[in-house]
Amino acid sequence: MGYFSLSFSVVPLPSQNTGSHKIQLFERDDLQGQTLELTDDCPSVQDCIHRPEIHSLNVLGGSWILYELLNFRGR
Question: Domain Beta/gamma crystallin 'Greek key', which positions (predicted)?
Fold first, then answer.
């Protein structure tokens, strides 16, 4: 398995259910290892977490957009 470069950003899509957005980022494959939960946008995942890399993620609520670049740019 690969890993996510930390030079990416995440943002939840607007929803009528406020407070329903949650995503977990894991340091290992298969949702293992230390985790960080986000409930709001993060223009730089590298600045939001203190992990060398992310290997898996789990969306617990809402819909999220992951951008390949910082500050919500790229695909």
Answer: 21-61, 62-75
Dig out the tokens for 14 from the structure.
Answer: 């607007």
Domain 9-13+20-72 fold: Gamma-B Crystallin; domain 1 (2.60.20)
Residue 45 parent element (H or E): helix 45-48
54 against 21, higher pLDDT: 21
pTM over 0.85: no
Query: Cβ distance 11 to 59 under 8 Å?
Result: no
How far apart, in whole angstroms, are the C-alpha atoms of residue 47 and residue 41?
A: 12
Residue 3 pLDDT > 60? no
- Tokens for 70, please give them: 């910082």
Long-range pairs for 31-37: beta carbons < 8 A, 24 or more residues apart: 31/56, 31/58, 32/56
